């Protein structure tokens, strides 16, 4: 069976070319401005927007799944205490618990997995942008579009160039090696930082998992993936890194909106302590742009006036004085 990814390459190319044509139609300059061909950079940025809009329902399901997993943490803790030392039974019981409560531990990673084909498609398409290639019309590109994209730059560094580009590749792209390394290096560092922040934002809001496997996945996403980008970023074309950075920024904004709209209702607690490990702030509602309305003022209860005691040396006051005389019956 021949499994081809051509449909992904055609889809990515079509979205890129459609957005590029749209920006060109509304008057974005074709030539470089400040060393940047903005129509192609905007095409990559709006490729991210297109993909994220399509995947938004999946992202909401991811949040709900993480909330469900968080709500099950007390039961997971009980199973860990019950089956301490029996890892096999513990795993079976936890899988049964997830099945019964319809919680999926893998749902939290689904949006990222669904974006992998898009990332690989863009990676493959941008690697084709080599002026020395004979075939310049693959995946629906015209020769003029191919030539325009091959010459596209960001601050004079070609979007098809990469930190690890050879001297021959740089010569074909008409690029300066030092400039490409500086721009690519800065973008890789930004890519690592924003990747770390997206994972940290979610963990701070939902808390660390009690399940050792879930905690290991959280640590991998928080530290492992950003560190791996330090090495793998050297082989990514600059256009792919731009896509990754914009995608991370979009994720940060999207997560912030969803977490404010649907704040976590369950918080983890430390063993033997009733204090929450990660206190959750209530969602802000009402007011202009979700600004919190001032709390209603509760009227204070009237306080009885204090009666001053007799001053030292003052004559005693006869309490019966001034009272009406009793009637004689």
Description:
This protein is mainly α and 329 residues long. It is built from ten helices and two strands, in the order ααααααββαααα. The chain has a two-stranded antiparallel sheet. Strand 1 and strand 2 form a beta hairpin. The termini are far apart. About 9% of the residues have low confidence.
Quick summary:
The protein is mainly alpha-helical and 329 residues long. The chain has helices at 6-25, 38-71, 73-82, 87-100, 110-127, 143-150, 167-173, 177-206, 212-232, 238-261; strands at 153-154, 157-158.
Question: Which SSEs are present, and which pair or pack?
Answer:
Elements: H1 6-25, H2 38-71, H3 73-82, H4 87-100, H5 110-127, H6 143-150, E1 153-154, E2 157-158, H7 167-173, H8 177-206, H9 212-232, H10 238-261
Antiparallel strand pairs: 1-2
Helix pairs in contact: 1-2, 1-5, 2-5, 2-10, 3-4, 5-10, 8-9, 8-10
How many helices in DSSP terms? 10
**Main sheet attributes: strand count, strand direction, barrel closure:** 2 strands, antiparallel
Shape: elongated
In which range does the helix fraction lie?
55-70%
Give the tags.
329 residues, elongated, two-stranded antiparallel ribbon, mainly alpha, 57% helix
């Amino acid at each position: 069976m021949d499994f081809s990814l051509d449909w992904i390459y055609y889809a990515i190319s079509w979205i890129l070319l459609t957005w590029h044509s749209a920006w060109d139609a509304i008057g974005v300059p074709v030539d470089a401005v400040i060393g940047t061909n903005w129509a192609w950079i905007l095409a990559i940025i709006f490729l991210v927007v297109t993909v994220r809009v399509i995947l938004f329902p999946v992202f909401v399901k991811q949040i709900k799944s993480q909330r469900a997993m968080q709500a099950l943490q007390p039961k997971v803790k009980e199973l860990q205490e019950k089956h301490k030392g029996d890892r096999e039974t513990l795993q079976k019981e936890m899988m049964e618990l997830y099945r019964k409560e319809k919680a999926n531990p893998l749902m939290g990673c689904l949006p990222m997995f669904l974006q992998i084909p898009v990332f690989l498609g863009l990676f493959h398409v941008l690697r084709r942008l080599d002026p020395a290639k004979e075939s310049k019309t693959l995946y629906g590109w015209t020769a003029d579009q191919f030539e325009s994209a091959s010459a596209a730059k960001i601050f004079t560094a070609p979007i098809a160039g990469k930190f690890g580009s050879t001297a021959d590749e740089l010569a074909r792209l008409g690029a300066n090696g030092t400039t490409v390394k500086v721009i690519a290096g800065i973008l890789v560092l930004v890519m690592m930082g924003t990747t770390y922040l997206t994972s940290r934002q979610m963990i701070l809001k939902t808390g660390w998992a009690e399940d050792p496997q879930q905690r290991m996945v959280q640590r991998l996403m928080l530290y492992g993936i950003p560190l791996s980008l330090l090495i793998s970023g050297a082989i990514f074309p600059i256009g792919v890194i731009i896509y990754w950075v914009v995608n991370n920024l979009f994720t940060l904004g999207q997560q912030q909106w969803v977490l404010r709209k649907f704040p976590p209702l369950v918080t983890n607690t430390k063993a033997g302590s009733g204090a929450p490990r990660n206190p959750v702030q209530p969602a802000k509602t009402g007011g202009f742009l979700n600004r919190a309305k001032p709390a209603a003022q509760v009227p204070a209860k009237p306080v009885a006036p204090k009666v001053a005691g007799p001053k030292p040396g003052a004559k005693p006051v006869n309490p019966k004085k001034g009272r009406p005389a009793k009637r004689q019956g």
